[in-house]
Amino acid sequence: MQGDARRRRNENYFDDIPRSKLERQMAQTGDWGEPSITLRPPNEATASTPVQYWQHHPEKLIFQSCDYKAFYLGSMLIKELRGTESTQDACAKMRV
Asked: Does the keyword ATP-binding feature in the UniProt annotation (predicted)?
């Protein structure tokens, strides 16, 4: 008997956690695929960044992922690794 009560309590555990409106809607309909949303053209999405500077399509940013790699020495971004030379350049820039 105690096992049944414990099992029921564990099954309902996630019901007590607040969910977003989208998660609640998807749980009710059983639709966990990609949500159907209408994407605006990039030039309408932001006025500050011209379209030609966008690196990725909006669909890729929303439904997939983008990997980037950056190298820092302290707070200095090292754009091109060249062994000790790039380290010395970064240290010189931090001193200025």
From this structure: no
